[in-house]
Design goal:
mainly alpha, Amino acid/polyamine transporter I
Length: 417
């Protein structure tokens, strides 16, 4: 019981990771995987979660042991390593939040039948509201509010998954011939699914910074074992919810011939409709709120993370800049992220697809390098020998690096050839 209480008190980085990851990669890609290809897609989903696990775990391991951020770990390896991470962060700064906020605004309009305001205006309202929440509430508010969001989402998904399992596959699905997985369209879908499952590798730096904030809120520093247990709980929840979404898509849409929208916003609305079919129309509002809360929490966690990591990178690159160390620096960075991404939406809205494609390309291609950097950081002199990853985790890490390298090479070939 004492151990459980300590684990609950340590809840934070793993919970935020789950909230950040359970966005479009789960709500859209996992459901679509089950709907188009059936249960077989559980293999790439679990494979991606297993092979990428060490890279995110190393963020928590490094911070818990050293009480430094993983960004500082990159700097200790050499400034060139930090510049690589800075480049990826720069690309994320101009793309990730803009895309997330647009999808969330569109989902809000679709779910709650808002016609009096456009997606741009709603995005602006979301930027203002979330920025104020992050500046006023800070890390502790973010952590506490997400406990409620994740709880609601988990209950909604658990109930829906149980109902669709009880009902079983749709009639005719047994004889349905699934689309070819290993043709160009199938491979591209696999790349998107596995590339963003559970999320991009650069988020390991985000997890590390949440770990730093969590340490500041605790009276007693948690042991490495406890910190990893907390993260593992969040990571397991992330993978489990991906499987839930896959099952819902498989048992409700696979074999029906339903045309699935290519738009994340419209598809998310289709998913909500699936939920209400299996639970009842009375549950529409409950499920709509849960779906919107999913994307809202993803916006909030990503906004917080990118603001923190951008500030940390700038601090390490320009240590003599006093303004970067001021108590208002985080608030300023949150507002900067809001303004920059609002301008991206306003000026490049029609080309958002191209911007996201650029971010995806950079993220996928540099993922194996980031994975290797994370391994190098936790195997370096900053970490005492007893706290370094054991041989089994090291082997899994090298497997993940090989997987990410092959993944990146094939992605480059698909895009550039």
């Amino acid at each position: 019981m004492t151990q459980l209480k300590m684990l609950l008190k340590a809840l934070g980085p793993g919970l935020l990771f789950a909230s950040m990851a359970i966005g479009t990669s789960h709500l859209v890609l996992s459901t679509k995987a089950g709907a188009q290809y059936g249960w077989i897609m559980i293999i790439p989903i679990l494979l991606a979660n297993i092979l990428k696990y060490p890279f995110f775990e190393f963020g928590i391991r490094y911070t818990t042991v050293t009480e430094k951020s993983l960004v500082e770990g990159y700097l200790n390896l050499g400034k060139s390593y930090l510049w690589v991470y800075a480049f990826i962060t720069l690309i994320s700064t101009f793309t990730v939040l803009a895309a997330l906020y647009v999808v969330t605004a569109g989902l809000f309009m679709n779910l709650f039948k808002i016609t009096s305001m456009g997606a741009g205006a709603i995005s602006l309202c979301l930027f203002v509201f979330i920025s104020l929440l992050l500046i006023i509430g800070k890390y502790r508010f973010l952590e506490n509010s997400l406990k409620a969001v994740i709880s609601i989402l988990f209950v909604a998904l658990l109930v829906t998954t149980a109902l669709v399992l009880e009902k079983g596959p749709v009639p005719g699905s047994e004889s349905y011939i699934r689309p070819e997985i290993f043709n160009e369209a199938g491979i591209l879908f696999l790349i998107g699914l596995m590339g963003w499952m559970p999320t991009a590798v650069e988020a390991s730096g985000w997890v590390s910074l949440w770990g730093m904030e969590n340490l500041k809120t605790m009276k007693e520093k948690p042991s490495l074992k406890l910190a990893l247990q907390e993260f593992n709980l969040g990571y397991f929840l992330t993978a489990l919810l991906a499987v839930f979404f896959l099952i819902i898509g498989w048992l409700t849409l696979y074999g029906t011939g339903t045309e699935l929208s290519g738009s994340a916003v419209v598809f998310a609305d289709q998913v909500v409709s699936l939920f209400t079919i299996h639970i009842g129309n009375w549950a529409y509002l409950f499920i709509a709120v849960a779906a919107f809360a999913t994307m809202f929490s993803t916006c909030m966690t990503a906004h917080d993370a990118i603001s923190r990591v951008s500030l940390d990178v700038l601090e390490k690159l320009y240590p003599k800049k006093a303004m970067l160390k001021s108590k208002n620096a985080f608030a300023f960075m949150v507002l900067c992220m809001a303004v920059i991404n609002w301008m991206v939406i306003t000026l490049f809205g029609a080309n958002m697809g191209n911007l996201v494609a650029l971010a995806t390309f950079v993220s996928f291609v540099l993922a194996p390098l980031l994975g290797w950097m994370n391994l190098k950081a936790v195997m370096g002199k900053d970490i005492p020998e007893p706290f370094k990853p054991k041989i089994g985790l090291q082997a899994l890490t090298y497997s993940g690096i090989i997987f990410l390298s092959l993944f990146a090479l094939y992605y480059c070939w698909m895009v550039l050839v």
